[in-house]
Design goal:
By secondary structure, the protein is mostly beta strands. The protein has three helices and 17 strands.
């Protein structure tokens, strides 16, 4: 009896299971297309409206270079179909005597010299924006290095202007000399992370103009004619912009007076500061505490290309605070004084000692006044490289 019952239960379970297998269903749909394609994109550079550019036709053909004369080469480029990152390079420079003249032979006196690439300034601009300014680098300086021009959208004209001019003091030894070189444009797709080597300026299109050297200086005295504190007396502290409250961040000019003469500093920039639309140069001064916290400190500011012809830019004051309450700024326009660029800047203290009436500002107090506190001189007009 027990055996029969067990068999009956197993039979019912098996039948129930088999019946359950047939009760599940799913919805579905199928869509089909034909004629699908897969094709590679196009990244192509057109130079001067020609594609391809004949390899035996030079991009650059500069003739009749003379001291103080500028020769300009203009090339129109366009990228096809897709945006791309663009580089240019001058490489394989080979210079020679070329055609010798009597003045050249006499000056060389049996010792030929023809390396004019080391005595020829190279300037570069893209779409009217200065990348390498005048009187900054020679052809030899940029030789064999890829110069990044930026990332550009397709089907938009890209005008590249490069100029070549001999130094003004080049003499007869350069007559008739010539150089041959290879000019190359390299186009990469935008997501290509590889960097051509060697790459000029760390592959930044724009040269950052900044103060790199204190040419000379004369520090004045404090209000009580004592020496300026050592922490404020290092001229190189005026080469880098700092924002926190630390007297090691600036150089105190000291007061100009009849006994010691004018208190001043001259700073040289690595690359010329370019005159552009608006203001071009910023003088940063340290006065801590915000407006009205300290008497007026002033300085006359000058700019020059050669430290011979100085142009007066105006007065720097400690009135206009920047983002913090530690630094004041005064901006100047090079174009207002007829300069298209400048490489040297002079700051001369003109602070009036008579405005320091509080005892803590004079007479040996802890904050004894010491004239204009120069934090830095900055170039405002930075070139902006094109981005995709």
């Amino acid at each position: 009896m027990e055996a029969k019952l067990l068999w009956s239960l197993l039979t019912v379970g098996l039948v129930s299971s088999m019946m359950g297998m047939g009760t599940f269903a799913y919805f579905s749909d199928t869509e089909t297309s034909s004629g699908n394609t897969m094709a590679a994109g196009i990244l192509n550079l057109i130079v001067g409206g020609r594609d391809p550019w004949p390899a035996d036709v030079p991009f650059v053909n500069i003739a009749d270079l003379k001291p103080s004369y500028t020769r300009v080469n203009s090339t129109d480029l366009m990228i096809q179909n897709n945006p791309g990152k663009l580089y240019k390079r001058i490489s394989g420079i080979v210079c020679g005597q070329g055609v010798s003249s009597e003045p050249e032979v006499l000056e060389e006196n049996g010792q030929p010299k023809y390396d004019i690439d080391k005595y020829t300034w190279f300037d570069l601009g893209v779409r009217g924006q200065t990348y390498i300014p005048d009187n900054a680098l020679t052809v030899a300086d940029i030789a064999d290095k890829y110069i990044y021009l930026g990332c550009f959208q397709p089907n938009v004209p890209i005008n590249v202007t490069q100029s070549f001019h001999l130094w003004t003091d080049v003499t007869n030894w350069a007559q008739g000399d010539s150089c041959r070189f290879v000019e190359e444009y390299l186009l990469q797709q935008t997501n290509d992370t590889s960097i051509p080597s060697p790459c000029f300026n760390d592959c930044h299109a724009c040269l950052a103009s900044k103060g790199i050297r204190v040419v000379s200086y004369l520090q004045g005295k404090r209000w009580d004619n004592s020496p300026v504190r050592p922490g404020r007396s290092t001229p190189n502290q005026a080469l880098a912009f700092e924002t926190n409250q630390n007297e090691n961040n600036f150089f105190s000019l000291g007061f100009s007076n009849a006994t010691t003469g004018a208190a001043w500093i001259i700073i040289e920039f690595n690359y010329p500061v370019i005159n552009d639309i608006g203001e071009d140069v910023r003088v940063v001064e340290d006065t801590w505490g915000g407006p009205g916290s300290y008497p007026a400190e002033t300085a006359d500011v000058y700019a020059s290309k050669d430290m011979v012809d100085w142009r007066y830019l105006g007065i720097a004051r400690n009135l206009n605070y920047s983002g913090s309450l530690n630094n004041t700024i005064t901006n100047f326009d090079l174009g207002a004084v007829g300069l298209d660029w400048a490489k040297y800047f002079k700051v001369v203290d003109t602070t009036d000692k008579n405005v320091f009436v509080k005892p803590e500002h004079r007479d040996g107090g802890p904050s004894t006044a010491d004239g204009f506190d120069l934090n830095a001189i900055l170039a405002i007009q930075d070139c902006r490289e094109p981005v995709c």
